[in-house]
Every structure is written in C-alpha cells, then in structure tokens.
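Project outcomes to date are best conveyed with an example. Our students and postdoctoral researchers have been running inverse folding experiments weekly, and each run begins with a structure described purely in tokens. The record below, which covers 75 residues, was selected by the lab manager from last quarter's runs and is presented without edits.
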C-alpha cells in the first residue's frame, strides 16, 4: 500500500500537515525530533565508549596480575 506513494504524494501530505498544524508547530516538532536524534546518537556513542573502557580495563587487570596466589599470601 505504501509502495505507491511517490514524491507528489509526499508533497501533498506535507502541505496538508502544514495547513492543519501551522508552520510554527511543525518547525518546533522538527526541532524536537532533531534534538531527540542527537541525544540518541550521543547515548549510543557513550554506551559504546563505556563498553570499550570496561573491556580495556578487564584486559589490563588480566595481564597485570600474574603473581601466584601463594606468593601473594606470603607478602
């Protein structure tokens, strides 16, 4: 059903939305959508960085602790 919507159909929908809601509300809505996309991208990047940091920290812990448990107890 949605496969047959072309450029003229999308333009018609855009005009109807502008007439119904007005330019101010539509531009405000698009601004909020942009802020939401930016916040989503920032969250994804922060999550990825956090995962990489945890992996690097775990790798560092594994490679630096090579002392046997019995030697640790002696000290």
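After processing, the design step wrote out the following sequence:
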């Amino acid at each position: 059903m949605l496969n047959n919507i072309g450029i003229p159909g999308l333009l018609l929908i855009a005009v109807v939305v502008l007439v119904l809601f007005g330019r101010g509300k539509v531009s405000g809505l698009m601004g909020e959508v942009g802020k939401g996309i930016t916040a989503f991208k920032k969250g994804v990047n922060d999550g990825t960085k956090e995962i990489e940091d945890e992996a690097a920290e775990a790798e560092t812990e594994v490679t630096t602790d090579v002392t046997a448990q019995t030697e640790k107890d002696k000290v």
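The chain is about 85% helix and 0% strand. Residues 7-64 form the longest helix (58 residues). The training component of this project remains on track.
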